[in-house]
Design brief:
Strand content: 15-25%
Strand order of the largest sheet: 12-13-14-18-19-24
Largest sheet: 6 strands, mixed
Shape: globular
Radius of gyration: 23 Å
Number of helices: 12
Number of strands: 24
Structural class: alpha+beta
Helix content: 10-25%
Distance between the termini: 5 Å
Length: about 450
């Protein structure tokens, strides 16, 4: 599974520069018997279009090889190989990835990308499971409009069985992923001390990236809180709706919950950061971009400025923001944290973030999309390189026993206590709840598709 941060800035110029600098003619689309043939060509060719690479290359392996040699952030570490000798693009990509730094580059079916990133839809049950502090399996979140939400399942529900099979046995036998990939099944859960057996059927639904929002009136303040799921699909609209709500209610503080947000578009990250930063970030740099040495040289020669400023959106008048995190907080989420730090107080509560200070471009070839890491990201003070995550100001475990908005939930309780006193709750500095290993199928409940862009298996 994967984290994702997609960069859109300067693409047209990037393609133009590389078409000029890399040399070689763009090859026509093969036809007839030659359509599936692939002969080795040592000449590196930049694609004439990011989203139509089949116009440039004879086969998918050639496309993968050229993209990694030309655009990849660590292209100087990419091996020179005969790409025709690999059985498929995935095998070749795994050979070319610079594993010392890169746990992010991947390829996936293009149709999945189109559905989730373009249409803002998903076809799954729409929930996530996690172990609590006593190693019991609980629901950690439920997406609005999803089959799980329609079945009344909520965060904190204790899961005993799925499809009639004991959850502990499924975990021991590593079978839970197979069961949860079924298009329909029942769950035996205990929710609010009541046993239930809801039935779920996977269906297509519009993903609302705001899982929860509320305004608490405490300590003489209005405190806005929202749980933000991702920066893809219709996330820009969802962010605007939340901050229109906060503005109309004149909130004094904001608690931004990014505990399960694994990334998305840099443009949406910029919008969110601007809404939070307000006048403090006007005309300031949100992110600095650095590509590989070849591309940086081309940009330098062209005089292109790679710094991206905060947007011109009207934000709130906040003195600080409190951000809740876990090791699933990644990519665009981390960019918001890092980008705001030079301009305002960012109080991070929870766990160390995932660690992804880099971004991707999507390249498509026929029915496949490649997401190579092409750029490293820094804030206005040139701070970045958080490959091992961003540490919180205060450690607090992810309390999946309580629903969002419950002020007894540890991370929210810690945030509210900090707003009240300016201090951190020592009682909440327990170890993080036991979590499954990154390759464990329990990490995501979704049928395999773009929704599992969390961590590379």
């Amino acid at each position: 599974m994967y984290h994702l941060l997609i960069i859109r800035a300067t693409y047209i110029l990037l393609i133009a520069l590389l078409l000029y600098s890399c040399g070689g003619e763009v090859k026509p689309v093969p036809t007839g018997d030659n359509a599936t043939s692939c002969t080795y060509d040592a000449t590196l060719i930049a694609p004439d279009s990011i989203n139509a690479m089949q116009k440039s290359y004879k086969c998918f392996n050639q496309a993968v090889y050229n993209v990694m040699k030309i655009y990849y952030l660590w292209n100087n570490y990419v091996k020179s190989v005969d790409y025709t000798q690999y059985k498929d693009g995935e095998a070749l990509l795994n050979e070319l990835i610079y594993t010392e730094n890169d746990r992010y580059t991947f390829l996936i079916d293009a149709s999945v990308v189109d559905q989730v990133f373009g249409e803002g839809q998903s076809t799954d049950m729409g929930y996530r499971l996690k172990l609590d502090n006593e190693n019991r399996v609980r629901v950690s979140y439920v997406l609005p409009n999803s089959p799980a939400a329609n079945a009344g399942i909520k965060r904190g529900a204790l899961v005993n069985k799925i499809n009639g099979q004991d959850i502990d046995k499924l975990l021991r036998n590593n079978d839970i992923g197979n069961v949860m990939s079924l298009s329909s099944y029942t769950m035996d859960i205990v929710q609010n001390d009541t046993a239930r057996s809801p039935s779920l059927i996977a269906k297509k639904y519009d993903v609302n990236n705001v899982i929860y929002k509320n305004i608490y009136q405490k300590y003489g303040k209005k405190i806005g809180h929202f749980v933000f799921y991702s920066f893809v699909g219709k996330a820009s609209e969802h962010v605007k709706e939340v901050f229109d709500y906060f503005k109309s209610n004149n909130v004094d503080e904001v608690i931004l919950d990014l505990r399960y947000n694994t990334g998305g578009y840099i443009t949406v990250a910029n919008e969110l950061a601007t809404y939070i930063g307000g006048s403090k970030v006007k005309d300031q740099i949100f992110v600095k971009q650095s590509f590989n040495a070849d591309i940086n040289a081309e940009f330098a020669q062209s005089g292109e400025n790679l710094d991206e400023k905060f947007t011109t959106l009207t934000g709130l008048a906040l003195s600080r923001v409190i951000i809740l995190t876990t090791d699933e907080t990644a990519s665009a989420s981390e960019l918001v944290i890092n980008g705001l730090k030079p301009f305002m107080s960012v109080v991070q509560i929870g766990g160390v973030t995932y660690g992804k200070p880099v971004g991707s471009i999507e390249f498509t070839y026929e029915d496949k999309s490649i997401f190579p890491i092409i750029v490293e990201l820094f804030n206005s003070k040139s701070e970045g390189k958080y490959y091992f995550g961003i540490k919180p100001n205060h450690f607090a475990y992810d309390d999946v026993e309580h629903d969002f908005g419950d002020t007894n939930e540890v991370c929210l309780q810690s945030a509210l206590y900090y707003i009240k006193t300016g201090n951190h709750l020592k009682s909440n500095m327990r170890a993080e709840a036991p979590v499954l290993q990154p390759n464990h199928p329990l990490l995501r409940s979704f049928i395999p598709k773009i929704s599992i862009l969390n961590r590379r298996l």
